[in-house]
Amino acid sequence: xxxxxxxxxxxxxxxxxxxxxxxxxxxxxxxxxxxxxxxxxxxxxxxxxxxxxxxxxxxxxxxxxxxxxxxxxxxxxxxxxxxxxxxxxxxxxxxxxxxxxxxxxxxxxxxxxxxxxxxxxxxxxxxxxxxxxxxxxxxxxxxxxxxxxxxxxxxxxxxxxxxxxxxxxxxxxxxxxxxxxxxxxxxxxxxxxxxxxxxxxxxxxxxxxxxxxxxxxxxxxxxxxxxxxxxxxxxxxxxxxxxxxxxxxxxxxxxxxxxxxxxxxxxxxxxxxxxxxxxxxxxxxxxxxxxxxxxxxxxxxxxxxxxxxxxxxxxxxxxxxxxxxxxxxxxxxxxxxxxxxxxxxxxxxxxxxxxxxxxxxxxxxxxxxxxxxxxxxxxxxxxxxxxxxxxxxxxxxxxxxxxxxxxxxxxxxxxxxxxxxxxxxxxxxxxxxxxxxxxxxxxxxxxxxxxxxxxxxxxxxxxxxxxxxxxxxxxxxxxxxxxxxxxxxxxxxxxxxxxxxxxxxxxxxxxxxxxxxxxxxxxxxxxxxxxxxxxxxxxxxxx
Length: 543
Description:
- The chain is of the alpha+beta class.
- It has helices spanning about 15-20, 20-30, 45-60, 130-135, 160-170, 230-245, 250-255, 260-265, 275-290, 290-295, 390-405, 415-420, 435, 455-470, 475-485, 495-510, and strands at about 1-5, 35-40, 70-75, 75-80, 80-85, 90, 95-100, 115-120, 140, 145, 150-155, 180, 205-210, 295-305, 310-315, 325, 340-345, 360-365, 375-385, 405-410, 530, 535.
- The protein folds into two domains: about 1-270, Rossmann fold (3-Layer(aba) Sandwich), CATH 3.40.50; about 295-535, 2-Layer Sandwich (Nucleotidyltransferase, domain 5), CATH 3.30.420.
- The strands form five sheets. It has a nine-stranded mixed beta sheet with strand order 20-17-18-19-16-14-15-21-22. A seven-stranded mixed beta sheet has the order 1-11-8-2-7-4-3, with helices on both faces.
């Protein structure tokens, strides 16, 4: 089971948070030799939940569920008591245990246990949570059978940490061995279709993890039943008040803290230059559509050869492939991609080893076919950090060759430029875009290829304009998620966002050009041989 955090500001907020540790309370009371673990990425979170467990156990002391417990420490509880049997001290009771363990940067902290229950607390602020979760999974199985279960609790609104992992798990629970539920959150909050199971046929509903909407515990009648309409109306009124306020992000904070749909749980509350409302709406559509979800193809691009000569690249479908294709290149009469139809870009890195999660991201954008038609959509992406940077550079070149386009690269990590030159791919490098430097006065950059990172505000604004007008054309969920999580006030992993902005900039710089259905001079995009392990172009630039 996986849960975004229940609402924090509700008429009865205590109800929501109190029931979460209940399994940890009853396990030591009812089951012998059980182990329950409360764990979090930061100590304060598992400590808080452990305190609730302690209070819950104490509340049962005057009931038929009473069981003596000893010891009772901040990090450990065991349901046991000592008796003297024929002069020999012995332990009695269920001997069940509850542990409070902090797992930050230490997955091994749980390795000595065999838990029946693991409660993961505040996953939203837990970096690389999936890694920790995968470590715990085998501990809950014996001889291939499940012997325990997990509860995962998190707070949305900070997608650059664990909330991104939580989001991924929430919308694909089966992949993480979590319970599945029908996604019934079909319509906008407050509409007739909101949370209406009849809106989408049962066979067409996508699966999600368990979700508790804020209205569940907002207003309660005398019998303990949730008053849905009154609660939704109250929440919507509060949102509207915050929307009209002058406080930045007040509206988004109000939504995330009292989420009524799963998508709302994963909103970003930091400052963002992109239109998040449109991005959220598009992301929700993609998550709910089975057909759109199948639109992407995964695979690899491999060199084609005639003897030792490399003649091009070909597509090899593979479910584990790192290349994502939404549309394969459109070919002219000569069997090659149309010239000036596709525009590539890459956000790169220099070092093979890194302590960050930075990856190389290369993408391709489709422009216009003629004066009467326009696609203006992203059609392909490669994002990865393989064992060597050279492999990443080579894969970016394969993508550009497949679509017959040049590559606009941020002029900050320079190793990739050298690699392109050394391997005969210099012609693929896009020169400084005029559309950027015409907006920059007194630029001191004299690079021939690529774009100065100091001009980032120019090309990010191009991407902003694209999102404003063309969100409905975007099919890449991860691209949208990272655009949503882009923070003006905070540094974060934004490889795909930078690459996407560079693609748009590349397109902007060529928008005045007309697509030509002509032969590529000297087969410029083909004919390479491998010399001493390196790819070398056979194209003679002297003619």
